[in-house]
Amino acid sequence: MADPGINLDLLVDDGVTTTLDECILSDLVESMSDLESRLPRGSWSLALRLTDDERIAAIHDQFFADPTPTDVISFPSGDDLREREGHLGDIVVSMTTAASNAAIYGHSTDREVAFLFLHGVLHVIGYDDAIPEERDDMLRRQTAILEAFERQRSFSL
């Protein structure tokens, strides 16, 4: 029997718009399993909330005592990733910041959201970016996963 995989629960805040299909994000995280050994096997859930700068700033302040907006915040669940089922965690992405980043980097907002989502997934499975070397490693992993997914699908987000 095949692994049931990761069930993504996408929440979009009122007033926030996105053109990114939830199925693409689900497929993206599923495609990680070939490239990322820390991703657990089995039946797992993961929540992604798309919000704006004002609401992510409030979350940032509440949990990290920093009232500024940020691009992505992740909350690992603490479930044992060696188990066969559980909840990976919750990821919050600011669509406002994603759109600004996309304009700076010259790609679509959908691609930026996918990139930030991957960053959050890496955090909830145990990666950290507190020091520059760790951050560089995470950025390389995000890029490699997203590019492999785009090659597999024969399209760019």
First-last Cα distance:
32 Å
The structural class is alpha/beta
| Contiguous helical run count | 5
Shape: globular
**Uncertain stretches of 5 or more adjacent residues:** none
Which whole number gives the mean pLDDT?
A: 92
Strand content: 15-25%
Q: In brief, what are we looking at here?
A:
The chain is an alpha/beta fold and 157 residues long.
Short key terms for the protein model shown above:
single chain; alpha/beta; 45% helix; globular
Question: Can you walk through the features of this model?
Answer:
This protein has helices spanning 22-31, 53-64, 95-105, 109-124, 132-153; strands at residues 5-12, 43-51, 72-76, 85-94. It is of the alpha/beta class. The longest helix has 22 residues, at 132-153. It has a 4-stranded mixed beta sheet, sandwiched between helices. The chain is 45% helix and 20% strand. β1 (5-12), α1 and β2 form a beta-alpha-beta unit. 29% of the residues are buried.
Helices, strands, pairings?
Elements: E1 5-12, H1 22-31, E2 43-51, H2 53-64, E3 72-76, E4 85-94, H3 95-105, H4 109-124, H5 132-153
Parallel strand pairs: 1-2, 2-4
Antiparallel strand pairs: 3-4
Helix pairs in contact: 3-4, 4-5
